[in-house]
Specification:
Elements (H helix, E strand, L loop, with lengths): L1 H36 L2 H4 L5 H8 L15 H5 L4 H20 L5 H21 L3 H4 L14 H13 L20 H4 L3
GO molecular function: electron transfer activity; heme binding; metal ion binding
Subcellular location: Cell membrane
Keywords: Cell membrane, Electron transport, Heme, Iron, Membrane, Metal-binding, Transmembrane, Transmembrane helix, Transport
Length: 187
């Protein structure tokens, strides 16, 4: 009996050690996947993202006097782990639609652009523009350094509890045209 007990104990320890290393491997693979899919190269590798990338290159988020650049992930992927994982799972549908041909050409992408943009705006409204506020928080703004209009609007937006996306929908990507009611019903 004692030998059997020792064998079980060794087996249990071996299983625990294997589970520990498997857990480390899983975390490493997850981290690698997140880091790989958060790069500008990955985000712009789809043919249809070329238009978005060209629009982005014309903004201050890409090139500015300070040299600080906001990448796709800075604006579209939360920093906190759980919201980041949820975002990655939801974003997989865009890759899926690229692969199955729903948005694989610029024309198809443009036809679906309003729907896709509306989803992103709704997400940003729900999160109080969490990703924007990583860099642009009201408490960090020096309103005295802003132009009169921006100073007035930012102060009013803060007082009203507005979120960035309420006013800045077309700040990086061109704001798509809302489809006509008869074409919107077809979606």
């Amino acid at each position: 009996m004692p030998q059997r007990k020792t064998s079980r104990r060794r087996f249990s320890m071996a299983v625990l050690v294997l589970m520990f290393f498997a857990g480390i491997g899983f975390v490493a693979a997850l981290d690698f996947g997140i880091r790989s899919t958060n790069t500008m190269e990955f985000c712009t590798s789809c043919h249809t993202m070329h238009t978005n990338f060209e629009e982005y290159k014309e903004t201050l988020h890409y090139k500015n006097p300070s040299g600080v650049q906001a990448t796709c992930a800075d604006c579209h992927v939360p920093k906190a782990l759980w919201p980041k994982l949820v975002t990655k799972v939801i974003a997989a549908k865009d890759v899926y639609h690229e692969l199955v041909g729903t948005i694989d050409t610029p024309e198809k992408f443009e036809a679906r652009r309003w729907v896709m943009a509306s989803r992103v705006w709704a997400k940003m409204e729900r999160s109080d523009s969490r990703e924007c506020r990583t860099c642009h928080d009201f408490s960090s703004m020096d309103l005295s350094e802003q132009g009169r209009s921006a100073r007035s609007r930012h102060a009013a937006a803060e007082d009203k509890g507005q979120t960035c996306i309420d006013c800045h929908k077309g700040i990086v990507h061109e704001e798509p045209y809302e489809p006509l009611p008869e074409t919107a019903a077809a979606d």
